[in-house]
Amino acid sequence: MNKKLAVIASGWHYSSHFYEEIANQHSVEGWEIDLFIISHRHPENEHTINEKTHCRNYEGDDPLLYLDKVMYETPITLKELKDLGWKYVEKPNTIGDMEIFNQWSEDYSYSDYDVFLITHDDNLILSKELFLDVLSKDIPLHKPIFESKYGVSGHQFKTEIISNNLEWMFLDNGYSEYISKAFTPRGSFSFYKKELIDLLPNQKFPMDGITLTRENKVESTTYRELGAWNTNAGNFRNVLYDLNLVEKTNWLSSSKRVSKYCIEGERGLISSNKCGEKHYISSVKNLFDK
Question: Between β-strands 115-120 and 3-11, what pairing exists: parallel, antiparallel or unpaired?
Answer without folding.
Answer: parallel
